[in-house]
Design goal:
The complex is a heterodimer of chains A (234) and B (290). Chain A has 234 residues and is of the alpha/beta class. Chain A is built from ten helices and ten strands. Chain A is globular, with a radius of gyration of 17 Å. Chain B has 290 residues and is mostly helical. Chain B has a domain of 198 residues. The N and C termini of chain B lie far apart (52 Å). The chains are: A alpha/beta (234), B mainly alpha (290). The interface between A and B is medium-sized, with 35 and 22 residues.
């Protein structure tokens, strides 16, 4: 479904992605793990088109998309829940979700909104409140729900568990697993590597802008080097 | 009492114009983070194009419409040719670009039009209306009513249409807006076009009272900027309140203290706001929890 080949990206003169290649197949949950500054967020932003690339190719369903504007990629079915709960603070929960479906013209938007509410009932309760007043966990749910409102074929999730309590982390991970059942392909970026690899079909470990290891979720979890470097287990 | 009422109405009238200019600032600032110092030139264009079109025999309503269209086109060109290519430049760079554009527009206007003062007839006559002893020009009601219509229309657009919410979303979080598929370049173009229209309408409404010339924009931009700062940059409600307050301050200051210093009040306001409460009266609307 998604093929990334030799992707390069830089902030000014500092090259952050030094030729990343990876694949995501339809129906998979793929985890992208790695330390701070490895380039995980930069990669997701380049996939969405909000971070300029300096080289490489991105193909989605066989079609080159690296020259497309961000909104065109959303129309193709690639949506993203960005790092750090970037909700529209001065707008209500409901408006945030509606804007997630900004490029859609079909009549099932309300139906999808109710599905998001069923997934995260707390959002239904606070639907008329301003997103900026929600707690961190609720904002995270809203950001994920907003990305779902775009009816993604490929959902990019950037650090959905960052700064959340263990209980909420479980709730979010459960939600991701249930997305796979709905046929949504997920590319998941996480610092919480063990949790991410545990639910992922496959994983990639990013190290200073390059893919260092790749394999199935369980094989990466079992790999002694990955364990030592990223899972904090000896 | 009659004197007080006189100052009150003239303050509100001129304040309504400042409010519209401040709204123009707010709209562009929200969509792009740019403080557009060419905002006053849109006001000038509104008045000048209407004056010259109607002098050429075009009926006033049509002349006003042409003026708004001209301003919108100039606003869109400003965005497309000067702001958009500098995307990613610092806020200061962009502000300097708008100051340059303002000087350019003024220069071109001096050449195309002339350097004289011009007047439009009041829309519904010029016989002052007596209100409890205060002599009020009928045009004052046009200014107040027109400003109210613009404010309400803008409010309905921002709060009750998807495109309006996309503008608010872009203002709140540009990155997230792009990630949900909002074309932020279009939103910025919309903001420049909308601001230009609002400025031009202000210019058309006020020209029968204050006259217009190629260089009225500079002072209006500064007053509108002061009003926007007073209300809290980026807050539409603040822009309206700031504009009206500034107008009243000027009218009462000129009336009871000295008319010599009329224009100084705006600058005094900027200084006081910057020293005492840089976030303005209404601060930022955003409540962010980190």
């Amino acid at each position: 479904m998604l093929e990334v080949e030799n992707l390069r990206s830089a902030y000014g003169r500092i090259e952050v992605l030094k030729g990343v290649s990876l694949e995501v197949h339809a129906g998979e949950v793929v985890a992208l793990v790695g330390a701070n500054g490895a380039g995980k967020t930069t990669l997701l932003r380049a996939l969405s088109g909000v971070q300029p690339m300096t080289g490489g190719e991105i193909r989605f369903k066989g079609q080159r998309i690296d020259r497309l504007a961000p909104h065109q990629r959303v129309e193709l079915g690639i949506t993203q829940s960005p790092e750090g709960r970037q909700v529209f603070g001065p707008l209500t929960v409901e408006d945030n979700l509606r804007l997630g479906a900004y490029r859609r013209r079909d009549k099932e938007i309300e139906q999808d909104r109710d599905r998001v509410f069923a997934m995260f009932p707390i959002l239904a309760e606070k639907r008329h409140l301003l997103a900026g007043g929600l707690s961190g966990g609720q904002q995270q749910m809203l950001a994920i729900g907003r990305a779902l409102m775009g009816r993604p074929k490929l959902l990019l999730l950037d650090e959905p568990s960052l700064g959340l309590s263990p209980l909420l982390v479980d709730q979010i991970l459960d939600a991701i697993v249930s997305l796979r059942k709905d046929g949504i392909t997920v590319l998941l970026v996480e610092q919480n590597a063990s949790a991410a690899l545990a639910i992922a079909d496959r994983g990639y470990v990013l190290e200073t802008g390059k893919v260092a290891y790749s394999g199935t979720g369980s094989s990466l979890l079992a790999d002694p080097q990955v364990k030592a470097a990223y899972l904090g287990i000896e | 009492m009659a004197e007080f009422l006189q100052f009150l109405i003239s303050g509100l009238t001129v304040g309504a114009v400042y409010a519209l200019v401040a709204l123009g600032f707010t709209l562009i600032y929200n969509a792009s983070g740019v403080v557009n110092f060419a905002q006053g030139e849109f006001v000038m264009l509104g008045g000048m194009v209407t004056v010259f079109a109607s002098a050429a025999g075009v009926p006033l309503v049509l002349a006003a419409f042409i003026a708004v269209v001209v301003a919108v086109v100039i606003g869109l060109l400003l965005h497309r040719l000067a702001i958009e290519p500098a995307r990613g430049a610092s806020a200061v760079t962009l502000i300097i670009i708008t100051i340059g554009a303002s000087i350019l527009f003024r220069g071109i206007a001096a050449i195309i039009f002339d350097k004289q003062f011009h007047k439009l007839p009041g829309f519904t006559g010029e016989t002052p209306i007596d209100i409890l002893g205060a002599a009020v020009q009928p045009q004052s009601f046009w200014v107040l009513g027109g400003a109210a219509v613009v404010v309400v229309a803008l409010y309905v657009f921002l709060e009750h249409t998807l495109l309006g919410k996309a503008v608010l979303a872009t203002a709140a979080n540009r990155l997230a807006a792009r990630l949900v598929g909002i074309n932020t370049t279009t939103i910025m173009a919309l903001a420049f076009g909308g601001s230009a229209a609002i400025g031009a309408i202000a210019g058309i409404l006020v020209t029968p009272i204050t006259l217009t010339s190629y260089d009225v924009g500079t002072l209006l931009a500064l007053k509108g900027f002061a009003a926007a700062m007073l209300g809290g940059m980026g807050n539409p409600v603040g822009a309206v309140v700031g504009g009206l307050l500034l107008g009243l301050l000027e009218a009462f200051g000129a009336g009871y203290l000295s008319s010599t210093y009329k224009d100084a009040f705006a600058f005094l306001v900027i200084l006081i706001v910057l020293f005492v409460a840089p976030q303005g009266l209404f601060g930022r609307r955003v409540v962010e929890r980190v």
